[in-house]
């Protein structure tokens, strides 16, 4: 990793207009380094997909970006704020510098066009000088790169399996060899065997082509296997960010600890699963303190009154966590939870 390729700074997004919008992203900071796989995890509705769409300016109405910056460093080392690009500059940057794989392949692929036509459309828009033969050859190369025979170029989306359609979406995203690949729960609708095959293929392509990945999912156990770092989101904020190994073995935020306890371990002895009590908060009526406090088994009085700031824990670890339990001003009479201190 030689430096940041994507930097999100104080990104804020509202849903709705007028005097009472819903604040769905509230000052998100995130950095993706070259060649890195960054996992983004959290419950449904925490803001993961909104973050990806806002960072690429694909957020549909009534979503509105109200503040922040998204800096992309291109291959020449130039930094550009995606939120400040003109429409022409943004069109040139999409698919060439940053691409996205959406959650539902069947909803993203056009059902009335053949796969080959859909693969070449983006290439033709960015490289108009290529001949029809070169475009077809590139489309065939892309399909074979993701493990699909080139004779499937003439197939329609409904003639492919779910796993093959998702591979086509990955091939389409990699057509112009972008630097950043955003993947919004790309394996959610697939069985576990196909999930494993697709993720292994993504990692192999990452090693070969050198792009960086933001992998969005609600399955933390999946990220532990493939991600270099993991960021945990809750109620439109990052509440913990650390290496995948640290999040798995030593989660610091009670919410991250609860997420890990909600999934069966991939290795080691069996253990009883424990869900997180309660429900995610209403983003229109957030309390003044920590958004997770009503569901947290370790909540203190300060948690009800003061919102924690994302930063390094008092132990000086190379990670960030937004929790009063890890603040420097932790009261001396508070018993520190053993499961968050190991």
From TrEMBL:
It holds the Pfam family oligo_HPY. CDD domains: ABC_NikE_OppD_transporters. It is a peripheral membrane protein. InterPro entries: AAA+_ATPase, ABC_Ni/Peptide_Import, ABC_transporter-like_ATP-bd, ABC_transporter-like_CS, Oligopep_ABC_C, P-loop_NTPase. SMART domains: AAA (SM00382). Keywords: ATP-binding, Cell membrane, Membrane, Nucleotide-binding, Transport. Its main location: membrane. It is found in: Cell membrane. Residues 6-260 form the ABC transporter domain. The keyword Cell membrane applies. This is ABC transporter ATP-binding protein.
């Amino acid at each position: 990793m030689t430096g940041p390729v994507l930097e999100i700074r104080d990104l804020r997004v509202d849903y709705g207009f007028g005097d009472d919008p819903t604040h769905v992203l509230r000052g998100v900071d995130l950095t993706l380094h070259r060649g890195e796989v960054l996992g983004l995890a959290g419950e449904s509705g925490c803001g993961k997909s909104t973050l990806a769409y806002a960072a690429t300016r694909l957020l549909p109405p009534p979503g509105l970006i109200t503040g922040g910056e998204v800096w992309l460093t291109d291959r020449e080392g130039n930094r550009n704020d995606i939120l400040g690009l003109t429409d022409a500059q943004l069109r040139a940057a999409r698919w060439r510098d940053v691409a996205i794989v959406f959650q539902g392949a069947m909803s993203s692929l056009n059902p009335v066009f053949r796969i080959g036509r859909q693969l070449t459309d983006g290439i033709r828009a960015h490289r108009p000088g290529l001949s029809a033969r070169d475009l077809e050859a590139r489309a065939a190369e892309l399909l074979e790169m993701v493990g699909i025979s080139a004779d499937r170029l003439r197939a329609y989306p409904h003639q492919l399996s779910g796993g093959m359609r998702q591979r086509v979406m990955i091939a389409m995203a990699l057509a112009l060899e972008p630097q950043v690949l955003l993947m919004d729960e790309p394996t959610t609708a697939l069985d576990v065997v196909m999930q494993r095959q697709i993720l292994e293929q993504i990692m192999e392509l990452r090693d070969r082509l050198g792009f960086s990945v933001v992998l969005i999912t609600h399955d933390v156990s999946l990220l532990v296997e493939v991600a270099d770092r993991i960021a945990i989101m809750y109620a439109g904020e990052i509440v913990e960010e650390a290496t995948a190994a640290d999040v798995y073995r030593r989660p610091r935020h009670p919410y991250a600890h609860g997420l890990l306890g909600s999934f069966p371990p991939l290795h080691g002895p069996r253990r009883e699963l424990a869900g997180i009590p309660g429900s995610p908060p209403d983003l229109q009526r957030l309390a003044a303190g920590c958004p997770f406090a009503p569901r947290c088994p370790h909540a203190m009085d300060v948690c009800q009154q003061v919102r924690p700031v994302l930063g390094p824990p008092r132990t000086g670890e190379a990670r960030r966590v937004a929790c009063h339990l890890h603040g420097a001003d932790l009261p001396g009479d508070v018993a520190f939870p053993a499961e968050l201190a190991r």
